[in-house]
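Tokens in:
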């Protein structure tokens, strides 16, 4: 089962680049319909612009690999449980959100809202008695990151706050240890990356960096850790 779903994840991941390229625009601007370099109308095909050969979105192999790894490991960690579809749906959207955030430092509200709109009913079907805890997890994560975003000099955006709420929904369904891990791991992951970038003079102390990928990676690691401990250490 993990291998089969990893293949599905790879297929969905391979579809991400053209969508991510269209949505990687500054706040308030409409989605792209043409190549930013030469104006050639876009097609729903990953790769490069047929006219100027500019890259249209992230490499297909990278998003396919991310989709395969997340789908495979989540299935392995959680097992064939009714709640698995909710986690896989958010994982697929997470690959898209991460690609957009890296490209333009944005986490589009419609994509995050789609994740919430799909996750809530899927979680409800899997275990309606746990929805209250899932909601509290979402409020805890979103509230914590909102406080961080309001601190002077913070580089957090409100897109990060909303994404934290979505991820907190899933982590809360698993339990409070998952919420705690999901809240702490992004900073443990992001810190070394920022340090390396600073030491290599690729960024400055005041450079805004995307936090979305670290949020997503931290939540993924938290789910895998809690899932494996629940399955094999009890």
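Residues out:
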């Amino acid at each position: 089962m993990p291998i089969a779903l990893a293949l599905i994840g790879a297929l969905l991941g391979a579809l991400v680049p053209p969508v991510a390229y269209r949505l990687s625009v500054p706040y308030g601007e409409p989605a792209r319909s043409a190549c930013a370099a030469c104006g050639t109308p876009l097609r729903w095909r990953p790769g490069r612009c047929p006219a100027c050969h500019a890259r249209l979105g992230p490499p297909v192999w990278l998003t396919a690999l991310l989709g395969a790894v997340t789908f495979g490991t989540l299935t392995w960690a959680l097992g064939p449980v009714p709640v698995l579809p909710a986690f896989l749906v958010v994982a697929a959207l997470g690959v898209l959100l991460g690609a957009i955030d890296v490209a333009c430092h944005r986490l589009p509200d419609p994509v995050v809202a789609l994740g919430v709109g799909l996750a809530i009913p899927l979680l409800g079907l899997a275990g309606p008695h746990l929805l209250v805890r899932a909601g509290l997890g979402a409020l805890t994560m979103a509230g914590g990151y909102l406080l961080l975003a309001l601190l002077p000099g913070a580089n957090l955006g409100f897109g990060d706050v909303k994404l934290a709420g979505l991820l907190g929904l899933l982590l809360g369904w698993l339990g409070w240890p998952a919420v705690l891990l999901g809240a702490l791991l992004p900073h443990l992951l992001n810190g070394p990356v920022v340090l390396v970038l600073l030491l290599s003079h690729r960024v400055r102390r005041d450079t805004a960096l995307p936090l979305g990928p670290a949020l997503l990676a931290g939540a993924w690691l938290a789910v895998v850790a809690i899932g494996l401990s629940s399955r094999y250490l009890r």
